[in-house]
Amino acid sequence: MRKILYSTHHKQVVKTVSRRRARAFLALTILVVLWFAVVATAGAAPRVGNAKLTTGSATVKANSVAPNGKSGMWWARENGWGISLTSSADNTKLFAAIYIYDDQGNARWYTASDCRFAGSQCTSRLEETSGSPCATPFSPGQVTRKDVGSLTLDFSSSAFANMSFDIGGVKRSVPIERFVFTSGTASAVDYSGVWWNPNESGNGVSITHLANTVFLAWYAFDTAGKATWYVLTCNTGGGNSCSEMLYSASGPAIGPSFDISRVQLKNIGPATLTFNSTGGARLAYQASGQTITKDFVRFVF
């Protein structure tokens, strides 16, 4: 299955990564265009510890609580789209984000911020969010949300579920499962979870950390303020930092089926993800001749 995913983009991977590993990372990046929890848009206040991360003129508290319950990346074995789930601290509800494409093939994300459980099933309304373009100073007044449909998740186990959604009248029911994209010895520090900047609600990253491989999905807004997402796959080598190329994606319009042949990636530029000793994370990337940095702390709700 991965053979169809390799791309000539691997030539641009940093020199310190072997050609074989570069190809594997790019294949993995495409494979994991599924993703991830846009918890920042939920508007809830995080529970935090006493560490601090300075982000420009603002200081936000950080915490080191790892995700629990059904948190993680999930997919339908269809490369190019998926859903991220984040369990609440008491495991009574989920925050879900569906990463897919609109009628023009543009990357879009939709969120279910309050999927409360009744037995093995949770249901929630779905929202679409627009906001402040990621490459400009953040403006909270630009963040708006609208109801676009509904989501139901029915779990048969901790690794398998059935997802049913209605987005703008387009309906689909499909089995999903946890996405496990690598194997190996667990890292001493697990950076998996939803990360955000409480001063920039509507902007954040979802991180899945398996062995030494980190997959990051950044949910943000394009130059028109519409929801879009970017992805990064890199290897920390057991440390607290890694660098690779940041990509955006386009694909088939949302519908009752999914054409994986229409999924395409665009190279945005080199990016570095760094975790600091106080529990914060920084994403720095280059695009259109400028370097942009975003600071995040873990979100727990």
Task: Describe this structure as you would to a colleague.
By secondary structure, the chain is mainly beta. It contains one helix and 18 strands. An eight-stranded antiparallel barrel has the order 3-4-5-6-7-8-9-10. It has an eight-stranded antiparallel beta barrel with strand order 11-12-13-14-15-16-17-18. The radius of gyration is 18 Å and the shape is globular. The model is unreliable at 1-67 (pLDDT under 50).
In short:
The chain has one helix and 18 strands. The protein has 301 residues and is mainly beta. The strands form three sheets. An eight-stranded antiparallel barrel has the order 3-4-5-6-7-8-9-10.
Tally of helical runs: 1
Instruction: Note the run of SSEs as H and E.
Output: HEEEEEEEEEEEEEEEEEE
Number of strands: 18
Q: Low-confidence stretches at least 5 residues in length (pLDDT < 50)?
A: 1-67
Strand content: over 45%
Q: Rg, please?
A: 18 Å
Query: Tell me about the biggest sheet?
Result: 8 strands, antiparallel, barrel
Q: How many angstroms does the end-to-end distance come to?
A: 37 Å
What is the approximate shape? globular
Placed side by side, the strands forming the largest sheet appear as 3-4-5-6-7-8-9-10
How are the secondary structure elements laid out?
Layout: H1 19-31, E1 51-55, E2 58-62, E3 72-75, E4 82-87, E5 93-101, E6 107-118, E7 121-130, E8 144-155, E9 160-167, E10 170-178, E11 193-196, E12 204-210, E13 213-221, E14 227-235, E15 241-250, E16 264-275, E17 280-287, E18 290-298
Antiparallel strand pairs: 1-2, 3-4, 3-10, 4-5, 5-6, 6-7, 7-8, 8-9, 9-10, 11-12, 11-18, 12-13, 13-14, 14-15, 15-16, 16-17, 17-18
